[in-house]
Amino acid sequence: MTRAVKLLRWYRRHGRDLPWRRTRNPYRILVSEIMLQQTQVDRVKKYYRSWLKQFPTWKKLAAASNAEVIRAWAGLGYNRRALALRDMARHVTKNGVPKTETEWKSIKGIGPYTAAAVSAFAQKKRTMPIDTNIRRVLGRILLAKPYSDLKDDDRIAKEAESFLPHRGHFYEVPQAIFDLATMICTKKPECMRCPLRRDCPVAERFLSGRVRIPKRSTPKSKERHHRDKRYPDRIYRGRILKLVREQDEVSLSNIGPLIDKTFDKTHDQAWVEYMIKRLCQDNLLQKTKTRLTLPL
Ligand code: SF4
């Protein structure tokens, strides 16, 4: 039995039942992939359903205004993704649904990972989307590296060709790897429970405790922080947007103390203005002389 077949058997019994795994609709798959960028699966589940209720098709989403998509995205964070997704829908409505990975990649905002994911999950293409989870698992199985990094992606992509079967449910292999990565092949893997234990060149090393588990596997965040503020700017920008979403319009003079209890006009006013400027540049807000509103 090949490694992929063993993995798929395990996946049939233990894989997660996620709503976007019950569809092959490219629109629904793309929505899930964009939401899953930087957001946890459990959180996405809730928003995925309500988003599809409000925007069930490419066409409905393409026709939505900035304000509508910003409101519908409320709570998911990284709000620029909402406008980007709407713009992708406009592209597809105008040019048709892409048929190849290269065509998906030609849409603004869709990178190699998302293009491969939509091609595999919606269009049953034999391709491997590589994210941190897939890199970790395949780096171990295919390259015998307990901890691979970004530089290994080309080799992993090349070797993945031998891992993916030519027949059967090869398009489900990446989903099975995601689940293995989440449940068993984690940073500190539980190789005893792994269906690929006998095929994995690093299993023995992990089982005998010969691998040093790194303290941090992801680089420290480079997000901007203002002075001694508790959170990165991203959190305060989210608070500004939330205020405007909830109140329709907000007076510019009130914003500082409303988003930060420790706001100090002398040291923080320019910082708040800078964040508002960025939100306006990203088309998430619009500003008059005295007030902020959502863009049309
Ligand atoms: S045997 Fe261990 S290291 Fe290898 S794939 Fe399974 S869990 Fe990961």
Task: Give the secondary structure arrangement, pairings included.
Elements lengths: L2 H12 L11 H11 L4 H14 L3 H5 L3 H7 L7 H16 L5 H5 L6 H12 L8 H12 L9 H11 L9 H11 L19 H5 L25 H15 L1 E3 L3 H5 L5 H17 L4 E2 L3 E3 L3
Antiparallel strand pairs: 1-3, 2-3
Helix pairs in contact: 1-11, 2-3, 2-8, 9-10, 9-11
Bound molecules: iron/sulfur cluster (SF4).
Iron/sulfur cluster (SF4) binds next to helix 9 and helix 12.
What would your notes on this structure say?
- This protein is globular.
- The protein has helices spanning 3-14, 26-36, 41-54, 58-62, 66-72, 80-95, 101-105, 112-123, 132-143, 153-163, 173-183, 203-207, 233-247, 255-259, 265-281; strands at residues 249-251, 286-287, 291-293.
- The mean pLDDT is 95.
- It is built from 15 helices and three strands.
- Among the domains are: 25-123, Hypothetical protein, domain 2 (Endonuclease III, domain 1, Orthogonal Bundle), CATH 1.10.340.30; 233-293, Arc Repressor Mutant, subunit A (Orthogonal Bundle).
- Helix content is 53%, strand content 3%.
- The longest helix is centred in the last third of the chain and has 17 residues, at 265-281.
- It is mainly alpha-helical.
- It has a three-stranded antiparallel beta sheet with strand order 1-3-2, covered by helices on one side.
- Helix 9 packs across helix 10 (153-163).
- The structure holds iron/sulfur cluster.
